[in-house]
Protein 1
Amino acid sequence: MSVARRQNKHESIAIPDHGDPVTPNRIKWYGSRMAQTVYEALLEKAVDHHGLVTTDDARELGLDPAQLRVLAARGKLERTGRGVYRVMALPVDDLLPYAEAVAWAHGPATISHESALAMRGLGDFNPTRVDLTIAPRYFPRRPVPRTLRLWREPLSEDDIEVVDGVRAARVSAALRQVLATGSDPHQIRRAISDAFRQGHITANEADRLRHAIDRASRRT
């Protein structure tokens, strides 16, 4: 890879050359100390988000979101949803569907219910759609993909954590959700045992959840 160098009186700055002219429209400046191409700025962002970048990310980086469409046309990005793109050079991992679901919302959204347990390998849940909880008063301005199962529920910050870069309901909150929405009691019991064994919940929490399953079974 050839490198163009820009010199000021204090230091030189390396600007990778990918074959295209290095023009002001292709460079994001961070003060006077570093420069990157648009693609590299997006790549750096995507590394921590399972290969995804969004138009919101572009704005946060001070870039024109239209640059994402340009890079998609060049084959460097793949559009996976409205305003959501995947960097083709990065590998696909198991959490990508969950990251895509949160990115789709372009707002407060959290992986929840069975999906929040499945992404951690708790129980043997295998939902056909990704469970995504959004705030009751948030209304995304785009159709809901068939790959998503949308829930509306006010989750506190104490109910949420970040799992490898993806917002997800904490295990205790996800277990309460699947209890409330009638998931398979056998799978819930297995998820409770897995969660306790892995240190996600305490023995007292596990007992309370099992008692809740028993009470629900007696009612039916």
Note: Residues 43 and 87 are 7 Å apart (CA to CA).
Protein 2
Amino acid sequence: MTQAQSSLEFIPPAYSPVIWNLAKGIIPFWLRYNHSIVRVEVDHAEELVHLYDQFQQGKMRFMMAFRHPSVIDPPCLAQLLWNQLPNLAQRQGISLRSPVHTHFIYDRGIPLWAGKRVGWGISKLGEHPFAVAQLIGWVCDQFGNYLLTDSFLWLLPLKERLMATMK
């Protein structure tokens, strides 16, 4: 590459209940037939149900952070939250309001390698883009020479925590 690329255009979140319901219905079959995943399991699901219940009642704020080393992790989490969590709650005698939904953040570069359709779908699920390069630039500004002496991998586990403090 001999010249700099212009920055990526912002993709605004544009949540669509129709697209969410479609994705909710498709995801179990997509996981099964494209990835041979027939069941998503979670330890301590009762705690997650309780947290969502408290959140939906307005008794607390709730933020869930995770790293996903595989592209299949976000769809598995969607399956858990959209389909399995309401069923688990019902078995505990708790009615969660639909949609049981989250607003994820995702790397703005994903539509570059996954395609425009994926970018469109992610926005219709209400997801929020961020630019990893800007995050890395912010971290370098904050931690300066320390990062130059450490491994770049040091950044990766911190990405989720740093997003909370970035302005």
Note: The chain has a mean pLDDT of 78.
Protein 3
Amino acid sequence: MEKAYRLLSYRDRSVKEIVSALEKKEFEPKIVAEVIARLKEQNYLDDRKFAMVYGSSMLRRRKVGPRYLLNKLVNKGVDKHLAQETVESIFHEHGGTGEEIDYWIERKLGSIKKSVEPLKKKKKIYDFLLRKGFTAEEIFMAFDGWEF
């Protein structure tokens, strides 16, 4: 139980993260299940809360797109449907993805050599934004306001 409390003292974690950490320390499955049940009962462990806090933090700090955030949450052990709801909620509250895309376009335009052809600049930025988790539709909508 102490190990789980210590992990939760640093930041919120998903159920999967706690289970993995306890299993890594070779706790018996019965004990792991009891600890998880107790933490949930005490409201220390809540995947919905974890997803909101983690997702909001990722958006604020790393300015990622919805697909990237969804993949991160699922990899952290959050149920896919819950992760999808959370991502939609976070981006709805935030007002969409336009602000993040504009931030990255501005940054990337500053780092790409001026001698590069406009079409190549656009392609580099497009590929980068896809890797950041934005959809093609979101990217093309954002491109309308920029000159390359």
Note: Residues 2-41 form one domain.
